[in-house]
Write a structure and sequence with these properties.
alpha+beta; Rubrerythrin, domain 2; 3 strands; 23% strand; globular
């Protein structure tokens, strides 16, 4: 069973009931994880995704140059 990287609480996830793109929330601290794979179960922290999106927004596009 995966555990939360923030508080180390076990994340109660039924693999048969989740799909890619679902958001799982830690019951203890509220950290959100996106399901990026189901076989095997793979999660990524939503905060990490938000930071990556912000980094991409800071990059100039061809139109801005």
């Amino acid at each position: 069973m995966p555990s939360c990287v923030e508080c180390e609480n076990d994340l109660d996830i039924d693999v048969d009931e989740v799909a890619e793109g679902d958001i799982i929330t830690c019951d203890e601290c509220g950290t959100e994880y996106e399901v990026v794979g189901v076989e095997p179960l793979e999660l990524t922290c939503v905060d990490d995704l938000d930071e990556a999106d912000e980094d991409e927004e800071d990059l100039p596009t061809d139109e801005e140059e």
